[in-house]
Amino acid sequence: DTFEMTAPTAYLPVEVDIPEMLFVGESVANNASNYATVKTGSNRVSVSASKFVIHQMWSGEMEEDSIIPFVPFLRRQAALGIAHYSDSLVLNGDTTNAGTGNINLDDADPADTKHYLAFDGIRHAALVDNTNNASDAGGALVIGDFGTLIGLMLDATRIHDWGHPANQDDLVFVADPQTADAAQQLDEVINWKTYNNQFSILNGE
User: Fold this and answer.
1) Could you tell me how many helices (H) and strands (E) the chain has, helices first?
2) Rounded CA gap, 146 and 161, in Å?
3) Which end of the chain has fewer CB atoms < 10 Å from its terminal CB, N or C?
4) What is the secondary structure of 112-149 as a DSSP string?
5) What's the whole-model pTM score?
6) Strand locations in the chain, DSSP E?
7) Can you tell me the distance from the alpha carbon of 120 to that of 129, in angstroms, rounded to the nearest whole number?
8) Closest among 95, 83, 154, 84 to 123, alpha carbons compared
């Protein structure tokens, strides 16, 4: 989904929880006492705009002497850069700009123009904001590691289970290439690729 920023800082409405159903007695008179009320929680989150640029310069001679169409090449590479760094920001964002503590550069001070300084991303939520949302595999990857992560997606306060969406395709695991390659070698994943819908990774075997 997308939304239009109408100001440098915008506010988006969000759900908080569901109303509790109460067990009550039957009304036997037209002037019976009112039942207790319950609240349907809602809230808002603030979203601040950030500015990003890809600033490049070249000469007319460089364009004329290029053995490839130079401007289309730059345009294509810029599109690839925007896609890569936009995804990286959502995953790896961390506003910590100091000599230590940034999840992308723990032992040095990142340059002030690094893209990941714009806002805190998904990994930051588990590694910094709430370490109870993180799970350390502590060895070779096994299928149970994914189940552990799913179990951490339960929000008991708001009565919502993010790990078991109505459409199972809405649950996506994002991994670095090495972890993704290791996952491809798990027996359950090989079984899925071999037998399509008859695989144990979905039917719970």
Assistant:
1) 7, 4
2) 15
3) N
4) TT-GGGSS--HHHIIIII-GGG-----SS--HHHHHHH
5) 0.79
6) 9-15, 42-48, 154-155, 160-161
7) 9
8) 95
What distance in Å separates the CA atoms of residue 94 and residue 99, rounded to the nearest whole number?
A: 13
The residues near 176 (Cβ < 8 Å, ≥ 6 apart) are none
User: Would you call 38 helix, strand, or coil by DSSP?
Assistant: coil
Measured between alpha carbons, how far is residue 105 from residues 14, 23, 60, 192 in Å?
32, 54, 38, 37
The tokens describing 176, both together, are: 């670095």
Instruction: Give Dmax over CA atoms of the chain in angstroms.
Output: 93
Phi, psi of 132 (to 5 degrees): -70, -15
